[in-house]
């Protein structure tokens, strides 16, 4: 033992140095203690137990500061060794070990790897089963820390934990005598339900078990032996669990009783602890157009006066207290339970190192963007964590609540507020998880149904907004209000109310204020009112003498900060959009890059020891506001393009993954804004756009900076994925002007990352390649297109649906490129493109067309393009014959199946592309009739009018009569189109009515097209139809001729001249047909068309055209 101690002391070396030392030095204390622990061997002696106790105490008391230099795998190894040293019959040691597990995993933000997790879970479960009940609280805390973000890796232990007689089920039961144990058990369940994108969800049976447990917890009243704070934490954990199931677990509430019970308890919990309100709700809310039951106890007449008096007294008391608090500059604070919250992950095996601080909440109650280890998180779907409450003051102990700050009452109110915010966040997740038509039945329970002044109001969301007006609540209200349809000045009032809090002394209030500003600038952007507010002079409404006034840096502040050599050049070449700076952009930039001001940051809850910058939650929220501004107000943001480039480089160069991720997201938004400016349909004048030369300079800085390192940072796959998305947002015109080595760098990194084993990275890379393959400077590069095709085909085989969906989208883009290249005069691309690769693409697309709808919709698009691209040299080869038949059959079946409408629309579009390839045996092949039968079935009976429109467009593609097949086939198509025209207003879905005109336009075009190709044998069928429905067809064709200004996406002629020329061409063709002797059909059809033109030209006043028609 002594030898082990000597060895340990030698390894420790000198005492830990100052904060500025490198991570290796900073972690020396931990490594020293770890080495001493690892040197021990299991020993049941008293001295051994004492030494282990001391080591555990030292490990717990060690100062783990920011960037402690402790590797996650070292923590896991130490915990396994500690468990091996502690037998389960030593209750005190097991309790201390549980505290150590909980403390290290939370303080160092570590997610245990799968192998060590297996051992540690087995140990903790056995500990609960064998140790005394007084240890259960500590063991459950350790278990909650272990399963956090590891739910998918706990499958084999779920029966022991969540089975009928599972440990968590028993310990969370209402009969559990220890309220703290019950709360800890519910907390474990909530962490188990936290799903990490890219990993499997909790299995459905266990989801339902947990949901019922959480629901029962929320419905149960507070027991007499439970204090208010424990009860609040119990409710919070149950709400977190339900929210995780709805967000990450994708749980669907399909049962009416299930949904109604949840909504009922959420409504009650939204008002938890609000003074003056004590509502009672039914156990279940049922959908009904009638007002919902309001369980507030009625006020008896004789009590009215006294109640009113008490209310008045309470209001006076509240006013005095509030005035006193404002005078003293005191704010309510909240404390953390020191437990793992359901919050984002930030790295490979490591959580957000600042989760002990205030988490950064974003607009709409959605949390700051997560990072993940080994596919542990994703940007496309983020579970909303209300643990990141904007008012949350985090501390390590309850002693932070001093008597001067309101004592226990203030603390209870603080926890009650967290419950209300949690209920609102859970309500938002519930709304997002159910269909609107289902939600409408419950809406009367949450919105006021008696808006008149003086009338009795039911308790609603409006009541909560009025009684609990925090920036977090306002952010949700702002985000869901249609300000584009409301009167001006409403947002200005909110804006002016929040300004004084932008530089509040409490970082949590400042974060919440930025959250609200982010909600304002992202709501129905761009709004003229917000544009004016953003362009206010820097001092407008912000310069007061009080300490809450925000300090805005002068316009030239950047020169005082480290800057790149390109800023002077950027200032010369920046477009002259507005000479007045946007004060909010300037504020956010200063928060992100400038050192914090001691005057207003001294009491920040999120401050990190030794950090010279503002607290991380504030910096992250500022970056999110910048991203919102780039998305909604780019014309204002573009003035700061190069400055924001410096901000992004700084963020990507920092050690913290969450800052890097937010920097990458800002880069993506800026890139997207630049692309929008240069789109063909952009309304931005050329002289108001950012010059391409400046965009090239911007991206050159990005590619010469830390962006490539972020792309190669395999320890943080979510960062890699976000960097891929950013790289795909480069302006094509700028990419073509980059130096060739920078172009090669982008392509090489993307093709290399496509081999990543992480699904998030692979999905992002597949999408980025699908963007690059459309670049004009790359799409004719046969080698690049072939390399991209092989990479995409590999991703189409991935087990992840998200990866396959992105790969299918990219395959569709790649085949679009093939069509563009085919239409160029130079045939070299078609000649050089590998026939074997085409064969592989066809096979992969056919298989993908059998996949889920997300994959299928783009797979059929790719099939249509590939069949269109096939050259006669391919079609003649026997090995292509079978695959062509199979591909067309795949399209036909997709047209007919009851799939998502987007899938069927794409299948009809693809069928039209097939018909464009004149080398295919359309009209003679056996599949011809099957293809036409499928399209005619859709055009007459599909519920979705956009699909009908696309099928009619496909039927009008073939350019020769022989492509329509036999006379019977032609007649079937003709009759189907006439029937479809007749039924063009038959729908029970009101939303489809807006497509009626477009549908008739496309059907009329198809009918006229068929007339312009008709043979003598087809005329009798046409005549019969016109005799029965001629008036109806004529009226709709006349509408078609007169509606020349109407535009649609089917390629129909847009001008009246083009449309009447179509009818003239059809008339000329019919007149040229050599009719059989005695056949009157030709004359009847010509008369029909002449009548249409006569009426049309007469009504339009075109006498010259009318005279020409008469002479004919």
Could you walk me through the main structural features you see in this protein, from its secondary elements to its overall organization?
- With 1112 residues, this protein is mostly helical.
- It starts with a helix and ends with a helix.
- It is 59% helix and 0% strand.
- It has 51 helices and no strands.
- Residues 290-389 are annotated as: Disordered.
> From the structure provided, what is the oligomeric state, counting identical versus distinct chains?
single chain
Number of continuous helical runs:
51
For the record, give the distance between the C-alpha atoms at the N and C termini, rounded to a whole number: 116 Å
Count of strand segments: 0
Helix content: 55-70%
Instruction: Give the biggest sheet.
Output: none
The percent range for strand residues is: under 5%
Radius of gyration: 34 Å
Q: Structural class of the helix and strand makeup? A: mainly alpha
Using the alpha-carbon principal axes, give the shape.
elongated
Low-confidence stretches: 1-24, 290-405, 539-578, 599-610
Mean pLDDT: 78
Task: Write a compact overview of the structure shown.
The chain is mainly α. It is elongated.
Helix-strand blueprint:
Blueprint: H1 2-12, H2 23-26, H3 28-39, H4 46-61, H5 72-85, H6 91-107, H7 114-130, H8 136-147, H9 158-162, H10 167-171, H11 179-193, H12 204-219, H13 228-247, H14 256-270, H15 304-328, H16 407-433, H17 436-439, H18 461-467, H19 471-479, H20 490-498, H21 507-522, H22 528-534, H23 567-573, H24 583-593, H25 598-601, H26 616-632, H27 634-637, H28 641-653, H29 657-677, H30 692-704, H31 707-711, H32 717-727, H33 732-735, H34 740-753, H35 759-772, H36 782-795, H37 801-822, H38 828-832, H39 835-848, H40 853-869, H41 872-875, H42 878-896, H43 901-915, H44 927-941, H45 945-955, H46 967-982, H47 996-1011, H48 1019-1042, H49 1056-1072, H50 1081-1100, H51 1103-1111
Helix pairs in contact: 1-3, 3-4, 3-5, 4-6, 5-6, 5-7, 6-8, 7-8, 8-11, 11-12, 11-13, 12-13, 13-16, 14-16, 19-21, 21-26, 24-26, 26-29, 28-29, 29-32, 32-35, 34-35, 35-36, 35-37, 36-37, 36-39, 37-40, 39-40, 39-42, 40-42, 40-43, 42-43, 42-44, 43-45, 44-45, 44-46, 45-47, 46-47, 46-48, 47-48, ...
Biased composition (Basic residues): 313-325
Pfam family, one: DUF4042
Region (Disordered): 290-389
